[in-house]
Model the fold of this input.
Amino acid sequence: MDIYDQKKRSEIMSKISSKNTAPEVIIRKILHSMGYRFRLHQKNLPGTPDIVLKRHQKIVLVNGCFWHGHENCKRSKLPETNKDKWEAKIQKNKLRDEHNLAELKVMGWDVLVIWQCQLRDREKLMEQISSFMTNE
Ligand SMILES: [Zn+2]
Done:
């Protein structure tokens, strides 16, 4: 059983999904330390991408494992209460993500998706970001 009632659970979950989440801040700091300049939450691009490096035609998306339905990840485990509802919601998010990603690519953007669970290995993360940024 979920220890929270439905309303409280939704409230908690919506807080988790809000902008300027800790994982995004971590990625921003890494990019910053590498000397890159970027803009945040560009509303004029599909899906309002988290981090936009315009000069490089690159975008970094930081996905929460739960909300974006990270496959085979234990952080994306759905609450037992209202599981069907959550499943439908997450599925909808995933479709939207795919759609936005496809559109960004058509527009000529190079996109890196970083999952929340990848933030645990900071060294690997920095390597990944640096190779994405230097790969033309
Ligand atoms: Zn994950």
